[in-house]
């Protein structure tokens, strides 16, 4: 009985000779480590448009046939689709039609509600942008105090997304808005 208790308390130790053999150990390098020696954080897997098209095509094919082995659900791909479905650089126009069908086929009501909430937020953001542009043209300036109060209550992720959105050209903002409207309309027609 006593041996079992000690096993849970034991620390995993690495022998000194193994530590010395590692290239990052200070005794093995005479000079200070450079930036190239520092470990790099691996990037998230970026999907290629052909990967996404293949996934959606297999999904569409499995829906039209009774072959269950033609397509396999992939949560990571679904999450990637939901995250980037508004981005015309990552999901081309030809793939977007399939993406819209796929989104309408999602069974989870919580996920659908999250998509609708996100899409509504994007529509409001674009409409406020258009309104600001009109106000700038008319030389009417609103108080910036209200905008600062709203911004403080937002999550960090939304702030980063908004910063990225601000870097978009007017044409890209319009494309995102059009895609958002198509998603909302498709989800309404689903019901």
Number of domains: 1
- Our count of helices gives 9
Order of helices and strands: HHHHHHHHH
Helix content: 55-70%
Counting DSSP E segments of at least 2 residues, the number of strands comes to 0
> Mean of the pLDDT scores?
78
The backbone outline, from C-alpha atoms, is extended
* SS class: mainly alpha
**Beta-strand share of residues:** under 5%
Q: How many strands, what sense, and barrel or not for the largest sheet?
A: none
Query: What is the radius of gyration?
Result: 25 Å
Give the end-to-end Cα distance, rounded to a whole number of Å.
61 Å
What are the low-pLDDT stretches, counting only 5+ consecutive residues below 50? 142-153
Q: Quick recap of the structure?
A:
This protein has 191 residues and is mainly alpha-helical.
Structure description:
The chain is mainly alpha-helical and 191 residues long. It has one domain. The chain contains nine helices and no strands. Helix 3 (49-64) packs across helix 5, helix 5 runs parallel beside helix 9 (170-190) and helix 6 packs antiparallel against helix 9. The longest helix is centred in the middle third of the chain and has 29 residues, at 109-137. The termini are far apart. Residues 142-153 have low confidence and may be disordered.
